[in-house]
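Q: I'm building a small set of examples for a reading group on sequence design. Run inverse folding on the following structure and report the sequence directly after it, with nothing in between.
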């Protein structure tokens, strides 16, 4: 690797275990921040509680005085889950860079399915998301849908790779006759749910 290091690290930078009590203290003393979205924090808290939260290098960022600039949703989730989290913390970042945080686009389910090697990645991700919501009882035809975390989606697609691919390939093969009234992903979802119980007669 030939990258040139241009900034000396703050000696406080590093991996930390953050307890719920410490997370609350950090939030109480944080700088003026974006509105905290409770639903997003609850989603992350669910991952922490289920053991699906990953220490992926995403940072909690502090200014020179040790006040949180970025990472409030993970801290709130730590409190809601009442479990410690481990995160890489970066200190000494100037307050005036705050508006530049989170400008990158979050990786979509389709992006994730493509990275996992699915040929029809968009419908695979859509069917997996529908199946997860169906299983946990949050699938609805109207209103705001419950968010499905990236990690939950990844695990589901990994565990059900063959069946998901089979349903999508079936629908792609007969799409002209099947997908006139319903979206392709909905038809594939119906096949996905019925096929395991039909002993091969769903096709």
């Amino acid at each position: 690797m030939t990258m040139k290091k241009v900034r000396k690290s703050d000696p406080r930078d590093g991996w930390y275990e953050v307890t719920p009590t410490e997370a609350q203290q950090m939030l109480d003393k944080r700088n003026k921040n974006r509105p905290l979205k409770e639903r997003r924090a609850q989603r992350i808290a669910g991952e922490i509680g289920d053991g699906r939260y990953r220490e992926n290098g995403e940072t909690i960022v502090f200014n020179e005085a040790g006040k949180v600039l970025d990472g409030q949703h993970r801290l709130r989730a730590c409190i809601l889950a009442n479990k410690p989290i481990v995160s890489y913390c970066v200190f000494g970042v100037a307050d005036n860079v705050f508006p530049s945080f989170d400008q990158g686009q979050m990786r979509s389910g389709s992006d994730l399915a493509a990275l996992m090697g699915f040929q029809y990645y968009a419908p695979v991700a859509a069917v997996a998301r529908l199946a997860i919501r169906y299983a946990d009882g949050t699938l609805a035809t109207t209103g705001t849908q419950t968010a499905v975390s990236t990690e939950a989606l990844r695990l589901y697609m990994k565990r059900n790779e063959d069946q998901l691919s089979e349903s999508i390939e079936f629908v792609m093969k007969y799409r002209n006759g099947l997908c006139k009234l319903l979206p392709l992903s909905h038809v594939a979802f119906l096949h996905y749910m019925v096929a395991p119980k039909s002993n091969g007669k769903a096709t």
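The chain has a mean pLDDT of 84.
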